Amino acid sequence: MKFLREPLVQFLFLGGLIYLAYGLFTPKIEEDTSRHIVVDNAKVQWMQSTWQKRWNRLPTKEELDGIIEQYIKETVLYNEAIKMGLDKNDGVIRRRLSQQVEFLAKDLVVYTPPSEEDLKKYYDEHQKQYTPDARYTFTQIYFDPDKRGNKTLDDAKRVKEQLIQQGSMLQDVSSLGDTFMVDRYFQSSSKFDIRKNFGTGFTEEVIKLEPGKWHGTILSGYGVHLVYMQEVLEAPAPPFSQIKEQVLQDWTIEKQIELKDQFYEALKSYYTIVVEDSNVSVLGKVN
Amino acid sequence: MKTSKLLSLYTILLISTLVSAESIGEPGRSSGKINPLKNVYFGEQHLHTGASPDAFAFGTRNDANDAYEYAKGKAIKNYQSGKMIQKRTPYDWAAVTDHSEYLGMMPLLLDSKSPLQKTEIGKLISKGDKASGEAAFQQIITSASIGVPIDYLVDAKIMKSAWQKQVDAANKHYEPGKFTTLVAYEWSSQPNSKNLHHNVFFRDSGPERIFSAFDSVHREDLWTYQEVMRSLGHDSISIPHNSNVSNSAMFALHTSSGAPIDRGWANRSALNSPVVEIMQTKGASETHPALSPNDEFASFEDKFTHLLGSGGVLGLIDKSFVRQALTDGVGFQELIGSNPFKYGFVAGADSHIAASANEEFNYPGVHGNIDYSPEVRLSGAGSVAGEPAVLFGTPGATGVWAPENTREAIFDGIKNRETFGTSGPLIRVRFFGGWDFPKNLVKDKNFIKIAYANGVPMGQDLPKKTSAKAPSFAVWALKDPESGNLDRVQIIKGWYDQRGYGFQKIYNVAWSDNRKLDPKTGKLPPVGNTVNIKTAKYTNDIGDTQLSAIWTDPDFDPSQHAVYYVRVLEIPTPRWSTYDAAKLGVEPPKEVAATIQERAWASPIWYTPDAKLVKKLDFYPGLQERLPYSGFNIGTMKNKK
Q: pLDDT digits over B85-139, tens only?
């Protein structure tokens, strides 16, 4: 009976139950097309509680009369509309009803809470998502092409050789290169921080650099740089026990989307679909 | 007289009903390193989401959470196009400023369970057809823009919970040291179709109740609200925007009741509204070609004029632009001893799709239904207030110099006017003024340290005069690594002479490519243009990466009040409409320039002469006689050759 533990099967089964329950317990506003309208106590209570939810108080006598009158009016007209077949091919009604089915489907996932193992497995598979951004500590020296012209690259290379010869230890480099508004030293900066200061191209290069060495020449939107990568910190993801809540939340969101899609696909599989006009894209917009 | 007294009484009564305001709880405060020489933090100070009724009508359903995610650099789904949109360079801070009028109310009108649906407008909307929907939205937008509420739609409870949602989103996305959010909203006052919109920003999580244009359309009343809230611990600033379409109202020389601006009014203005928005999607507000005929860069993103139907008529341009206001401001300083237009600069989006898309090459539109794709944007159809999508520019950006990236530090940076606005690119600008700057200061390793120690940064008054020399200014600009090189740096001076006339003059102080100034006119030859219109590509082989200068005012008169601000220009690059046209393989639209020179404006530094130096004026109290109220008089601001 392993198939009974498949989420989709559980899902469809529960889905069926909910449909049934929905049919049994919801006031039959939609289905009642006879010429007999009863506003019983249950209905009045339902109206009152709906009102209270929205307005934080019960309706006054006058307001309640209004709601009931509105309900009767709506029911009469609604019944007539159904009899006349106005619900067929009305875009708004179609969308509303299909949204309601989707909405019901979304709620289903609470009926199949994940086990500890499910969550752990999800955590393992999504390690990357929980891993904090790497942090880079580096020094950069800037060479201004507006000042140095065609010699910029050569100047930078010469300084690099000089630095390498002096040993890889970082000495005071503030006298090297050209004045520049952006800092020379960046301490545990994220990829985002680097991009904010140097642009995309430079960042993509710098995050690949091996620590403990002078690198370059590296180009940015500003000109030419030498970079000493001091340290790259890549912290592991926090242990599962610490972020269980977060994992459950992410699992739930993903599952809801997955099940909603599965639900739709399952329903769709019962249909034969023919798209005749080959120019109309199935994916196209409704409007 | 009577009405204005009544009005202020009304305001006090109204405010006293707001006083129950309590703090909504502070998010944890912690910060990283503090840099006394200050870092630049780029961000957004003007943005609408689906909580604004007009944005909702344009089809926007994304909320403040989406707006903050986008600003942080994450991809979000554009509601109208269904496509993912993402900034290339993330922001350091952002503020969502939804309209306070009908905040968060639109979804309730569409909710079948809401009693609002039974109202006249609710009924119209629930008809479900497009025409009725548009008619309903039109009524709402009109009511919001004239400041007259539709009474049955104004509900304190809805307002309170909608505002709480905005505050919660801001607090949720605030990560001190990494990303700052400011709690803010837009006060959308537009009496007689004259745009007086201000965005309001709180230093903390703000009070429970905000002051909307339905409470009052007069800025004096907004200031009263701010002052009362400040006394309760909720410090705030309000930032005026779109003076360019204010029909001469934003920088009028009189108060809402028609009285001439006096010292008290000027003090309140400077205290509550210390900065002004100089650029956004609905145009630049720096100056206008009619006001600055000698400024070859004055015509910039100035095609959007329709909001209030000024249609480019001269009379409506007068008192609508920042440069003129700054100049009038120093005139007031001289005449009444206080400056009502003592503004620093910020710039922003005013986008209505919850995304501050400041990148010209990465433009997803700003008004949803009317501009969500290149095809729709260039079609010429669809409009907001009658203007086609092509006349809107890309959003601007704001840089703040602050010691750290926290809510308090960013707020204080703006309040102290240590800010600059840009037309979008993240150009960095330093600007200092002082009396004894060494000539080689900008080359010094300790430039910034010395400049802070011996002078003042942008947004401040020059220190008390200590030398017989003219003041000097240090300026340093760095390009955005994702945008064009820099063409030039200019210092723009405004002052009043002893006859009560305002003047402006533009000085080129640093420029690229070893060009030579014309010794007669002081003008600099154009930098050139590398843009290939067909492919929308340009090269950075003209212009410079960074420009700097020490500049001493050659026309300094120690007896004259003066204001100095910086304008940095990029080399020409393609406008968004040119990028779109290249994508579609069509000609760029004719109504707008194919290439633009993006720019940054750094907040002014003011010079106020010692009282002994000012010659006794031969007129009083006649500022209003010297500076005509109505009609454009070129004599109020002359161009000095």
A: 999 999 999 999 999 999 988 888 877 777 787 888 888 877 777 777 778 887 8
B38 torsion bin: left (phi>0), alpha (psi -120 to 50), beta (else): left
Residue B405 contacts by C-beta under 8 Å, 6 or more apart in sequence? B31, B32, B39, B41, B92, B93, B176, B177, B178, B179, B180
Model confidence, pTM: 0.79
Question: CB of B327 within 8 A of CB of B253?
Answer: no
- Which residue stretches of chain A have pLDDT < 70? 1-34, 105-111, 168-171, 277-287
Consecutive H or E run containing B567 = strand B562-570
3-state secondary structure of A2: helix
Which one-letter amino acid corresponds to residue B201?
F
Per the model's pLDDT, the better-predicted residue between B634 and B206 turns out to be B206
Q: Can you list the domains of chain A with their CATH numbers?
A: 2-113 (no CATH), 132-233 (3.10.50.40)
- Choose, out of A60, A196, A220, the residue to mutate when testing the contact with B (most B CBs < 10 Å): A196
Chain A residues with CB-CB distance to B70 below 8 A: none
Average pLDDT, chain B: 87
* Direct distance between the N- and C-terminal alpha carbons of chain A, in angstroms, rounded to an integer: 46
Return the number of CB contacts < 8 Å for A and B.
61
Residue B597 one-letter amino acid: Q
Distance of CA B115 to the CA centre of its chain: 39
Distance CA B257, CA B260 (A): 9
Is A251:A118 a contact under the CB 8 Å cutoff?
yes
Question: Are B628 and B501 in contact, with CB atoms under 8 Å apart?
Answer: no
- Residue B101 CA: distances (Å) to CA of B170, B214, B217, B366: 19, 7, 11, 20
Q: Where are the domains of chain B?
A: 35-420, 432-639
d(CA B209, CA B213): 13
pLDDT band at B382 (very low <50, low <70, confident <90, very high): low
Which residues does residue B456 pair with via DSSP β-bridges, in sequence order?
B433
Which of A133-137, B250-254, B380-384, B583-587 is predicted with the least confidence, judged by mean pLDDT? Answer: B380-384
What's the average model confidence in pLDDT over B204-224? 94
Instruction: Using CB atoms, pick whichever of B73, B114, B480 lies closest to residue A192.
Output: B73
Identify residue B86 by its one-letter amino acid code.
Q
Contacts of B550 (CB under 8 A, 6+ apart): B437, B438, B439, B440, B441, B442, B472, B473, B474
Minimum-distance CB partner of B546 among A174, A181, A200:
A181
